[in-house]
Amino acid sequence: MYEVLWEKKAFKQLLAIEHAQRKTITHAAAGLKSWPACIGVKRLVGHQYAYRLMVGRYRVFFDVDSAVRIIRIEEVKKRDEHTY
Question: DSSP H helical segments within 1-84, as ranges?
Fold first, then answer.
């Protein structure tokens, strides 16, 4: 079992998200305690963060050493034919 730690910036980003989505994100992040047997996690190559957890339209970026450190939360905007 790993301990899940929130960086100050990630925690502030979490508080800025609406309550229903925040609850979903915290539930998914709690699932990271069972690292590496987690669902929705992808190892990132060539990125400043090691891993990404997908939670709906949000991406939770984190690193793993002796604990799981959640570093950043980003919202993915809807893509359409005008995006590119």
Answer: 8-15, 19-30
